[in-house]
Protein backbone atom coordinates (compact mmCIF):
# COMPACT_ATOMS: atom_id res chain seq x y z
CA UNK A 1 0.00 0.00 0.00
CA UNK A 2 1.46 3.34 -1.10
CA UNK A 3 -0.88 5.52 0.91
CA UNK A 4 -4.45 6.31 1.78
CA UNK A 5 -6.44 9.51 1.29
CA UNK A 6 -3.82 12.31 1.33
CA UNK A 7 -1.30 10.35 3.40
CA UNK A 8 1.87 9.25 1.58
CA UNK A 9 3.29 6.18 3.28
CA UNK A 10 7.04 5.96 3.79
CA UNK A 11 7.34 2.46 5.25
CA UNK A 12 5.37 -0.11 7.24
CA UNK A 13 5.61 0.07 11.02
CA UNK A 14 4.09 -3.36 11.68
CA UNK A 15 0.72 -4.93 12.30
CA UNK A 16 -1.63 -4.45 15.21
CA UNK A 17 -5.11 -5.47 16.27
CA UNK A 18 -6.92 -6.01 12.94
CA UNK A 19 -4.82 -3.56 10.96
CA UNK A 20 -1.47 -2.36 9.66
CA UNK A 21 0.58 0.65 10.79
CA UNK A 22 2.52 2.90 8.43
CA UNK A 23 4.88 5.83 8.82
CA UNK A 24 3.50 8.68 6.73
CA UNK A 25 4.22 12.30 5.94
CA UNK A 26 1.84 14.72 7.56
CA UNK A 27 -0.68 16.03 5.01
CA UNK A 28 -0.46 19.83 4.62
CA UNK A 29 -4.09 20.22 5.72
CA UNK A 30 -3.29 19.10 9.28
CA UNK A 31 -2.37 22.10 11.49
CA UNK A 32 0.27 20.32 13.57
CA UNK A 33 3.99 21.01 13.73
CA UNK A 34 5.37 17.54 12.95
CA UNK A 35 6.85 16.02 9.83
CA UNK A 36 5.64 12.45 10.30
CA UNK A 37 2.62 10.67 11.73
CA UNK A 38 1.69 7.02 12.24
CA UNK A 39 -1.34 5.77 10.29
CA UNK A 40 -3.32 2.63 11.05
CA UNK A 41 -5.46 1.06 8.33
CA UNK A 42 -7.95 -1.48 9.67
CA UNK A 43 -8.60 -4.75 7.87
CA UNK A 44 -12.33 -4.72 8.60
CA UNK A 45 -14.57 -3.19 5.97
CA UNK A 46 -16.04 0.00 7.33
CA UNK A 47 -19.76 0.50 6.85
CA UNK A 48 -21.14 3.96 7.48
CA UNK A 49 -22.54 2.79 10.83
CA UNK A 50 -19.18 1.29 11.87
CA UNK A 51 -17.36 4.40 10.65
CA UNK A 52 -19.52 6.69 12.76
CA UNK A 53 -19.16 4.41 15.78
CA UNK A 54 -15.36 4.25 15.41
CA UNK A 55 -14.95 7.99 14.98
CA UNK A 56 -17.05 8.56 18.10
CA UNK A 57 -14.77 6.26 20.07
CA UNK A 58 -11.66 7.96 18.73
CA UNK A 59 -13.10 11.38 19.54
CA UNK A 60 -13.78 10.23 23.10
CA UNK A 61 -10.23 8.83 23.30
CA UNK A 62 -8.79 12.11 21.99
CA UNK A 63 -10.78 14.11 24.57
CA UNK A 64 -9.02 12.35 27.45
CA UNK A 65 -6.18 14.61 28.51
CA UNK A 66 -3.22 12.57 29.70
CA UNK A 67 0.51 12.82 28.98
CA UNK A 68 0.54 9.02 28.97
CA UNK A 69 -1.75 8.58 25.96
CA UNK A 70 -0.70 8.78 22.32
CA UNK A 71 -2.52 11.65 20.62
CA UNK A 72 -4.97 10.69 17.83
CA UNK A 73 -4.88 13.25 15.01
CA UNK A 74 -7.25 12.35 12.20
CA UNK A 75 -9.62 9.64 10.96
CA UNK A 76 -11.22 8.83 7.65
CA UNK A 77 -12.59 6.24 5.28
CA UNK A 78 -11.55 5.36 1.74
CA UNK A 79 -12.91 2.57 -0.47
CA UNK A 80 -14.46 0.88 2.54
CA UNK A 81 -11.26 1.01 4.61
CA UNK A 82 -11.21 2.87 7.92
CA UNK A 83 -7.96 4.58 8.91
CA UNK A 84 -6.76 6.93 11.59
CA UNK A 85 -3.53 8.77 12.29
CA UNK A 86 -1.73 9.50 15.52
CA UNK A 87 1.52 11.00 16.71
CA UNK A 88 4.62 9.07 15.70
CA UNK A 89 7.08 8.03 18.42
CA UNK A 90 10.35 6.77 16.90
CA UNK A 91 11.44 4.93 20.06
CA UNK A 92 9.35 1.89 19.15
CA UNK A 93 7.42 -0.15 21.68
CA UNK A 94 8.03 -2.64 24.46
CA UNK A 95 7.50 -5.34 21.82
CA UNK A 96 9.92 -3.81 19.31
CA UNK A 97 12.10 -1.08 20.83
CA UNK A 98 14.34 0.99 18.59
CA UNK A 99 17.18 0.33 21.04
CA UNK A 100 17.59 -1.83 24.15
CA UNK A 101 15.39 -0.75 27.07
CA UNK A 102 17.03 -0.76 30.52
CA UNK A 103 15.10 -2.42 33.37
CA UNK A 104 14.07 0.87 34.95
CA UNK A 105 12.88 2.16 31.57
CA UNK A 106 10.69 -0.90 30.98
CA UNK A 107 8.99 -0.49 34.35
CA UNK A 108 8.60 3.26 33.82
CA UNK A 109 6.91 2.68 30.46
CA UNK A 110 4.56 0.12 31.97
CA UNK A 111 3.62 2.46 34.82
CA UNK A 112 2.86 5.13 32.24
CA UNK A 113 0.58 2.70 30.37
CA UNK A 114 -1.26 1.98 33.61
CA UNK A 115 -1.75 5.72 34.21
CA UNK A 116 -3.04 6.09 30.67
CA UNK A 117 -5.53 3.29 31.32
CA UNK A 118 -6.59 5.01 34.54
CA UNK A 119 -7.30 8.22 32.63
CA UNK A 120 -9.39 6.32 30.10
CA UNK A 121 -11.29 4.53 32.85
CA UNK A 122 -12.08 7.82 34.56
CA UNK A 123 -13.66 8.92 31.28
CA UNK A 124 -15.69 5.72 30.99
CA UNK A 125 -13.50 4.13 28.29
CA UNK A 126 -11.91 0.67 28.29
CA UNK A 127 -8.80 0.35 26.14
CA UNK A 128 -9.34 -3.36 25.28
CA UNK A 129 -5.90 -4.00 23.75
CA UNK A 130 -3.12 -3.45 26.27
CA UNK A 131 -0.07 -5.43 25.15
CA UNK A 132 3.67 -4.79 24.56
CA UNK A 133 3.18 -3.46 21.04
CA UNK A 134 0.81 -0.77 22.28
CA UNK A 135 3.13 0.60 24.96
CA UNK A 136 5.21 3.09 22.97
CA UNK A 137 8.51 4.37 24.29
CA UNK A 138 9.77 7.92 24.57
CA UNK A 139 12.33 9.70 26.77
CA UNK A 140 9.73 10.42 29.46
CA UNK A 141 8.79 6.76 29.81
CA UNK A 142 5.93 5.51 27.67
CA UNK A 143 2.54 6.17 26.14
CA UNK A 144 -0.40 3.88 25.55
CA UNK A 145 -1.46 3.62 21.92
CA UNK A 146 -4.00 2.02 19.61
CA UNK A 147 -7.42 1.95 21.23
CA UNK A 148 -8.87 -1.48 20.44
CA UNK A 149 -11.55 -1.03 17.79
CA UNK A 150 -12.22 -4.66 16.84
CA UNK A 151 -15.43 -4.76 18.85
CA UNK A 152 -16.55 -1.47 17.31
CA UNK A 153 -16.47 -2.91 13.81
CA UNK A 154 -17.95 -6.28 14.76
CA UNK A 155 -20.41 -5.87 17.58
CA UNK A 156 -20.87 -8.94 19.73
CA UNK A 157 -17.50 -10.35 18.68
CA UNK A 158 -15.96 -12.73 21.19
CA UNK A 159 -13.12 -15.13 20.50
CA UNK A 160 -12.30 -14.42 16.87
CA UNK A 161 -12.27 -10.64 17.10
CA UNK A 162 -9.90 -10.04 19.97
CA UNK A 163 -6.78 -9.64 17.88
CA UNK A 164 -3.86 -11.73 16.67
CA UNK A 165 -1.87 -14.40 18.45
CA UNK A 166 0.33 -11.73 19.98
CA UNK A 167 -2.71 -10.36 21.82
CA UNK A 168 -4.48 -13.48 23.08
CA UNK A 169 -2.40 -13.99 26.21
CA UNK A 170 -3.10 -10.41 27.34
CA UNK A 171 -6.89 -10.68 27.03
CA UNK A 172 -8.96 -11.42 30.12
CA UNK A 173 -10.54 -14.86 29.48
CA UNK A 174 -13.87 -13.36 30.50
CA UNK A 175 -13.68 -11.20 27.37
CA UNK A 176 -12.80 -14.17 25.18
CA UNK A 177 -15.96 -15.83 26.45
CA UNK A 178 -18.13 -12.88 25.54
CA UNK A 179 -17.94 -10.66 28.62
CA UNK A 180 -18.02 -6.89 28.45
CA UNK A 181 -14.76 -4.90 28.48
CA UNK A 182 -14.15 -2.58 31.40
CA UNK A 183 -11.50 -1.30 33.80
CA UNK A 184 -11.00 -4.72 35.39
CA UNK A 185 -10.29 -6.39 32.04
CA UNK A 186 -7.64 -3.77 31.28
CA UNK A 187 -6.07 -4.39 34.70
CA UNK A 188 -5.84 -8.09 33.84
CA UNK A 189 -3.88 -7.11 30.72
CA UNK A 190 -1.58 -4.89 32.77
CA UNK A 191 -0.86 -7.76 35.15
CA UNK A 192 0.01 -10.17 32.33
CA UNK A 193 2.19 -7.49 30.74
CA UNK A 194 4.00 -6.84 34.02
CA UNK A 195 4.67 -10.57 34.33
CA UNK A 196 6.18 -10.72 30.85
CA UNK A 197 8.23 -7.52 31.26
CA UNK A 198 9.83 -8.75 34.49
CA UNK A 199 10.17 -12.48 33.84
CA UNK A 200 10.40 -12.58 30.06
CA UNK A 201 7.70 -15.28 30.03
CA UNK A 202 3.95 -15.40 29.61
CA UNK A 203 1.52 -16.59 32.27
CA UNK A 204 0.50 -19.46 29.95
CA UNK A 205 4.02 -20.45 28.98
CA UNK A 206 4.97 -20.43 25.32
CA UNK A 207 1.81 -20.26 23.24
CA UNK A 208 1.96 -21.93 19.79
CA UNK A 209 2.92 -19.26 17.32
CA UNK A 210 1.20 -20.68 14.26
CA UNK A 211 -1.93 -22.40 15.59
CA UNK A 212 -4.51 -19.89 16.75
CA UNK A 213 -7.05 -22.45 17.89
CA UNK A 214 -4.49 -24.31 19.98
CA UNK A 215 -3.29 -21.05 21.55
CA UNK A 216 -6.86 -20.07 22.32
CA UNK A 217 -7.60 -23.49 23.82
CA UNK A 218 -4.56 -23.13 26.07
CA UNK A 219 -5.66 -19.72 27.33
CA UNK A 220 -9.24 -20.82 27.98
CA UNK A 221 -8.41 -24.15 29.60
CA UNK A 222 -5.28 -23.45 31.65
CA UNK A 223 -4.93 -21.43 34.82
CA UNK A 224 -2.35 -18.65 34.50
CA UNK A 225 0.85 -19.51 36.35
CA UNK A 226 3.07 -16.93 38.01
CA UNK A 227 6.77 -17.54 37.54
CA UNK A 228 8.74 -18.45 40.65
CA UNK A 229 11.49 -16.12 39.37
CA UNK A 230 9.42 -13.00 40.06
CA UNK A 231 10.39 -10.91 43.07
CA UNK A 232 7.71 -11.14 45.77
CA UNK A 233 6.33 -7.58 45.26
CA UNK A 234 5.94 -8.19 41.53
CA UNK A 235 4.37 -11.61 42.00
CA UNK A 236 1.92 -10.19 44.51
CA UNK A 237 0.83 -7.41 42.18
CA UNK A 238 0.47 -9.76 39.22
CA UNK A 239 -1.59 -12.14 41.37
CA UNK A 240 -3.96 -9.33 42.37
CA UNK A 241 -4.36 -8.14 38.76
CA UNK A 242 -5.31 -11.68 37.72
CA UNK A 243 -7.64 -12.27 40.64
CA UNK A 244 -11.44 -11.96 40.72
CA UNK A 245 -12.54 -8.93 38.73
CA UNK A 246 -14.22 -7.21 41.65
CA UNK A 247 -11.09 -7.55 43.80
CA UNK A 248 -8.52 -6.26 41.30
CA UNK A 249 -6.74 -2.98 42.05
CA UNK A 250 -7.58 -0.04 39.84
CA UNK A 251 -5.15 1.04 37.14
CA UNK A 252 -3.90 4.07 39.07
CA UNK A 253 -2.99 1.82 42.00
CA UNK A 254 -1.21 -0.54 39.62
CA UNK A 255 0.83 2.40 38.30
CA UNK A 256 1.80 3.55 41.80
CA UNK A 257 2.85 0.05 42.80
CA UNK A 258 4.90 -0.44 39.65
CA UNK A 259 6.67 2.86 40.35
CA UNK A 260 7.52 1.56 43.82
CA UNK A 261 9.16 -1.59 42.46
CA UNK A 262 12.97 -1.66 42.38
CA UNK A 263 14.40 -2.20 38.92
CA UNK A 264 15.99 -5.64 38.88
CA UNK A 265 18.28 -7.52 36.55
CA UNK A 266 15.37 -9.78 35.73
CA UNK A 267 13.38 -7.10 33.94
CA UNK A 268 13.27 -7.63 30.19
CA UNK A 269 11.66 -5.42 27.51
Task: Supply database-style keywords.
269 residues; alpha+beta; 6-stranded antiparallel β-sheet; two-stranded antiparallel ribbon; 9 helices; 8 strands; globular; disordered C terminus
Task: Describe it.
The structure is a single chain. The chain has 269 residues and is an alpha+beta fold. 35% of the residues lie in helices and 19% in strands. The protein has nine helices and eight strands. The protein has helices at 48-63, 103-122, 150-153, 165-168, 173-176, 183-199, 212-221, 232-241, 251-259, and strands at residues 3-4, 7-16, 19-25, 36-45, 72-78, 81-87, 135-138, 141-144. The strands form two sheets. The chain has a six-stranded antiparallel beta sheet with strand order 1-2-3-4-6-5, covered by helices on one side. A two-stranded antiparallel sheet has the order 7-8. A hairpin with a 2-residue loop joins strand 2 and strand 3. Helix 2 (103-122) packs antiparallel against helix 6 (183-199), helix 2 packs antiparallel against helix 9 (251-259) and helix 6 (183-199) packs antiparallel against helix 8. The longest helix has 20 residues, at 103-122. Residues 150-163 and 265-269 have low confidence and may be disordered.
Overall shape: globular
Assembly context of the chains: single chain
Average pLDDT confidence is 86
Task: Name the structural class.
Answer: alpha+beta
Major beta sheet, strand line-up: 1-2-3-4-6-5
* Individual helix count: 9
Largest β sheet strand count, sense and barrel closure: 6 strands, antiparallel
Unreliable sequence segments? 150-163, 265-269
Write the element-wise H/E pattern from the N-terminal end onward: EEEEHEEHEEHHHHHHH
Summarize the amount of helix as a percent range: 25-40%
Radius of gyration: 18 Å
Beta strand count: 8
**First and last CA, distance:** 30 Å
β-strand amount: 15-25%
Amino acid sequence: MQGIADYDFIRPLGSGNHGHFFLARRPPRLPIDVEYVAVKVLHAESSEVAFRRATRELAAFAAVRSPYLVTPIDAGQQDGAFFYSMEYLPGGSLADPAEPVPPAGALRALAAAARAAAALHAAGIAHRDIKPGNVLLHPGGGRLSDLGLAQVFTEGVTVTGMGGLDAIEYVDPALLLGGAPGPATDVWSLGVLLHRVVSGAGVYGDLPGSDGLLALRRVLSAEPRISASLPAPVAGLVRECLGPAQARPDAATVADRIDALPATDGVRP
